[in-house]
Amino acid sequence: RERLWNYTLQTEAGLGRRYALALWQRDDTHWLGNITNASKLLASSKGVPRAWSSDWGTETGRNDKVFIMERAAAPVLLTLYSAYMRPGLVPAPPGIGENPERVIVSASQCGSIETPMLSFRDLPVSVAQLMPRNRRGKTHASLCVLRRYFSRENLLAWANGTEFCEDIAEGTG
Predict the structure, then answer these.
(1) How far apart are CA 150 and CA 18, in angstroms?
(2) Which residues pair with 70 in a beta bridge?
(3) Pair 52, 117: CB distance under 8 Å
(4) How far apart are the first and last CA of the chain?
(5) How many angstroms separate the CA atoms of 100 and 103, rounded?
(6) Confidence band for 109, pLDDT divided at 50, 70 and 90
(7) What is the DSSP letter of 149?
(8) Within its chain, how far is the Cα of 87 from the centroid?
(9) ∠77-103-82 over CA atoms, to 5°?
(10) Could you give the CA distance from residue 25 to residue 64 in angstroms, rounded to a whole number?
């Protein structure tokens, strides 16, 4: 992320323009629909930097699969690798350990960044992985999503046609 952020800064300087929003996503992110309208996010601006994430999977701090952030939040959040690798750069709450989600929360608090959450309908993402499948004697990889990252509401709304990794592993998918 940080390297891409540095390229973004160079591009902005070369164009003489600045992006209004930035997006990060983990490499295991799987989009299950369209993202909310960016104009809607920008229209609700309060003058305080904001970074939106999903409202699921927040047991350990903040869901770190996807963040949509205002330009003012990007310098803090897109340089978290340096902050994480240099202890003391970002004050950490007690018991932070190795949890990246808590690092995000801590960095957001230190950078005075608001972190509102978006519903699954506004940010329809899940975690996906490639699973080996054997069909007709041939093995191939199949993309599947992890059921544990779906709430009951999300399952009912989005699971039609979605292959779940647990089903493939059990041989029922």
Answers:
(1) 35
(2) 21
(3) yes
(4) 35
(5) 5
(6) confident
(7) G
(8) 23
(9) 55
(10) 8
